[in-house]
Amino acid sequence: MISKNLEKAINAQINAELWSAYLYLSMSMHFAHAGYAGIANWFAVQFKEEQDHATIFMNYLNSRDGKVVLEPIAGVDTEWESPLAAFAATLNHEQKVTAMINELNALAIENKDYATQANLQWFITEQIEEEETARGFIDALKMIGDNGYGLYMFDKELAARTYTTPAPLANN
Ligand code: FEO
């Protein structure tokens, strides 16, 4: 059975992942309304991925005889002044999530909970990708600036993103 302090911390992480999902859904809706169908698509896929992250943690807590407790999800922003502002907010948020995952891992080490450490490995790797992707988009958007054709092509590129089930859920 999982320790009470880890159970509490994982429940906080589940809430954070669901909040992330809500944030990216809000970004998706904002950009759909603003005429950026590709960026809206990218954030819609991100919305699904964040729900998957919450599901992976919920499945894990259940498997360790912990109790999942779903708390209220706080409100999110609904406006971003540009795609660059949204991806800067994304990077900022993902850096906070990375810090939370690292804290969880530190707690698992302190508890000598090897199963939780193993479960967190997938998330540690995932966070590298989450930050790297956001940083790449920020760099591209800085280069594009106000160039309309550049923004059009950027939006087109993000329209190509499709959803795939993450490995920890693939066999469920
Ligand atoms: Fe669930 Fe974007 O980290």
Task: Write up what this structure looks like.
This protein has 172 residues and is mostly helical. It contains 6 helices and no strands. The chain has one domain: Ferritin, core subunit, four-helix bundle (Ferritin), CATH 1.20.1260.10. The longest helix has 31 residues, at 114-144. It has helices spanning 4-33, 37-63, 83-110, 114-144, 148-158, 167-170. The radius of gyration is 17 Å and the shape is elongated. 30% of the residues are buried. It binds MU-OXO-diiron (FEO). Residues 17, 20, 50, 53, 94, 97, 130 line the site of MU-OXO-diiron.
Keywords summarizing the entry:
single chain; 172 residues; mainly alpha; Ferritin; 6 helices; 76% helix; elongated; binds MU-OXO-diiron
Tally of strands:
0
Number of helical regions:
6
Rg, Cα atoms, Å? 17 Å
The CATH C-level name is Mainly Alpha
In short:
The protein is mostly helical.
Blueprint (SSEs and pairs):
Layout: H1 4-33, H2 37-63, H3 83-110, H4 114-144, H5 148-158, H6 167-170
Helix pairs in contact: 1-2, 1-3, 2-5, 3-4
Bound molecules: MU-OXO-diiron.
